[in-house]
Amino acid sequence: MKRIGPGLLAIVLLTVPLWVGNPYYVHVLIMAGIFAILALSLNLLLGYTGLLSLGHTAFFGIGAYTSALLALRLDWPPWVGFLAAVLVAGLAGYGIGKVSLRLRGAYFVLVTISFAGVIYLVSVNWMELTNGPLGLPDVPPFSLGLPGLFELSIRTKPAAYYLVLAVAGAAYFLCHRLVRSRIGRGFIALRENEALAESVGINGTRYLVLAAVVSAAMAGAAGSLYAHYTRFVSPEVFLFTYTVTMVIMVVAGGKGTLVGPVLGAFLFTALPEALRAVTSWQWQMLLYGVFLILTVFFLPKGVIPTIETWLRERRASP
Amino acid sequence: MSLAVEELAVRFGGVAALVDVSFEVEPERITSLIGPNGAGKTTAFNVITGFLRPARGRVLYEGKALTGLRPFQVAERGIVRTFQKTNLFHRVSVLDNVMIGLHLRGRMGFLSILLGDRRVREEETALRGVAEEILAFVGLAHRRDEVASALPYGEQRLLELAVGLAARPRLLLLDEPVSGMNPAEKTTVMGLIRRIREQGVTILLVEHDMRLVMGISDQVIVLHHGRVIAQGPPGEIQSHPEVIRAYLGGR
């Protein structure tokens, strides 16, 4: 059963465009994939090191703008823009980490919120660079290969789906490797007991900055995918609601697990769309809220940890 | 000389926790730091391990200054401490607690880990083996998969010892390792401390249990009101008039 599960899931994920005819559903899945990368990225901080970044959308937006601007202004191929987005977002994460992680706790939260606020203001007011609140239209779609030689343009929804699936898969496996390594154990140690972690030789500041860099870089990757998929970037990418959505996905799915945030991303991307289909917009947000409260009330640790506990108890007492 | 503490002074606001403390710890010996509550024992530990900066004085380990180093840097030099109150990675399994303690023995860096280098897996297997040995040493092998917070109190304290040992100390500072334990558990810990010393580890012990201190120590240092009032072998300390006065009060 343990072997069949992931294999089956892989087959389902890989064949989705073949049996999901409606492009709208594929679109929802693509957005879920992008949010899955964001949730995994936030989870690395919130779930493993215990740091709450409430400005995570800043790294997402930086990735989106970097990639879009490089493509529009300098004509760089999107995959190079993607790498640049990862790099620039990672650097931003390094800066934020260096500045704020000497303080930890609430100060880190405040610095991340302020950072997102500042970046948002820059995106609105630096008209020459960002085109202000009008945003950047006509971002080219993602393409692979080298211009002139060969090019594989990703314009169709199924192609975009596979691209996002590949990046989300890579993000998942990178997180998997990281959290099960000595570095990941360092993250967990700092979350559980910083004094003890330091007294067995774990350099707290260094590891927390590392976590911030990796997390920011992943969010930057998601931003780049978003820019080239929706083909439009505006200051809205910095909205606080995106951060809140990420936190909801991580917490409801199960922070500190790897499957949890991915499941959370899927649930909370699909839910508003499902509600939109069955009810009017006034009820939509209300029901979303009710669903969220019920989840927090009945599954306070998140979906995946609750299932894990339940399975363990069932195995313990057959 | 293993550890040398020279003229340490620490103040908390108007309170002098350590006034002028100097002592030395012989290598591969068990040295105990005793004294009534508030004498400054834990403060001395905090200064030695980098959790606290002294107002004056310095700490030398094998001739090199430790003062000013951060706790993880002190650990890198082979000096590891345990804490007075139960201090574990509570929501993590017993085995993973020790695996975290093994941090400094791992060599794999960020890139090797991301790229899934074969050596990463080899190192993990090797470290797991070491962790299991350490658990067997303290007698917790049967608990390896349980969550640390689910262990009974005595076993949690043994796990703390295991985490400390995992960091491969050459100087181990134990802060009240048997407080709250029953007599059988105390005997176990006493045996473990002796065996750790036999492996060449220097031990500095803070403990209130006088039977343990007098039974195990090579050297005893008595702190009172932030000063060293006596030091010497256990036999001498037990009959030292200043020590008796400090513990029993009176003039």
Structure notes:
The complex is a heterodimer of chains A (318) and B (251). Chain A is mainly alpha-helical and 318 residues long. Chain A has one domain (23-252). Chain A is built from 14 helices and two strands, in the order H-H-H-H-H-H-E-E-H-H-H-H-H-H-H-H. Chain A has a two-stranded antiparallel ribbon with strand order 1-2. Chain B is α/β, with parallel strands linked by helices. Chain B folds into two domains: 1-78 and 169-251, P-loop containing nucleotide triphosphate hydrolases (Rossmann fold, 3-Layer(aba) Sandwich); 88-166, no CATH class. Chain B has helices at residues 41-48, 71-76, 94-101, 110-115, 118-138, 153-166, 183-198, 210-216, 234-238, 241-248; strands spanning 3-12, 15-25, 30-34, 56-61, 64-65, 79-81, 171-175, 202-206, 219-224, 227-232. A six-stranded mixed sheet of chain B has the order 6-7-8-3-9-10, with helices on both faces. Chain B has a four-stranded antiparallel sheet with strand order 2-1-4-5, with helices on one face. In chain B, helix 3 (94-101) packs parallel to helix 6 and helix 5 (118-138) crosses helix 6. Chain A binds chain B through residues 174, 177-178, 181-183, 185-186, 188-189, 192-193, 195-204, 210, and chain B through 49, 51, 70-72, 74-76, 80-81, 83, 87-92, 96, 99-104, 106, 108, 110, 113-114, 116, 120, 123-124, 127, 163-164, 166-167.
